[in-house]
Design a protein that fits this description.
171 residues, alpha+beta, four-stranded antiparallel β-sheet
Length: 171
């Protein structure tokens, strides 16, 4: 069997070029992260001390851009959540439920968005943010990536009063 040296390895949202870059400490950590994410191989991660995501907010935004997934502005979402709570006399509250534990219907377009995000950012951990006041309503689909200090809101349904525009361009 002949081994062929590759100069270009691409995984959605992460690109590593050239073997010299992979020989550096940062390159080895990135290789370990790629091996863990793409192949499920964890031994290299343990050897180089890569224990959490090496992705940054910019990496996640670039992955979303490449997947053509738009995000909602977190300030608009926050203002809307406050308005809903105030409109309900502060008698309800917003809950964040991991998607695997959420037992209400999720529209197929939101599932499609989640699948696109997961393909681009395998580390994404999804949850549904919903307001509970006698019934579950006002859901937003969001995700976080371990080690990235931001929650990304990528879909909304049953929300006729939410008028915030999706960002045209990601920063």
């Amino acid at each position: 069997m002949e081994l062929v040296k590759q100069d270009y390895v691409a995984i959605p949202a992460i690109v590593v070029t050239g073997t010299e870059q992979l020989k550096s400490t940062k390159g080895r950590i990135k290789r370990a992260a790629l091996a863990r994410l793409a192949l499920g191989y964890r031994e290299l991660s343990l050897a180089v001390g890569e224990t959490r995501s090496q992705l940054t907010i910019q990496d996640v935004e670039e992955g979303l851009r490449q997947a053509d997934v738009q995000i909602f502005d977190n300030k608009d979402v926050g203002r809307y959540k406050t308005k809903v709570r105030n409109d309900n006399w502060n008698s309800g509250s917003w809950w964040t439920t991991p998607i695997e534990e959420y037992d209400e219907p999720i529209p197929e377009f939101a599932i499609d968005t989640a699948l696109l995000v997961k393909q681009a950012i395998p580390e994404a951990k999804f949850s549904v943010e919903h307001f509970i006041h006698r019934r579950t309503n006002d859901p937003f689909l969001s995700f976080k990536v371990p080690g990235v200090q931001r929650r990304f809101v990528v879909e909304v349904w049953d929300e006729p009063d939410f008028t915030a525009e999706r960002k045209e361009q990601l920063a």
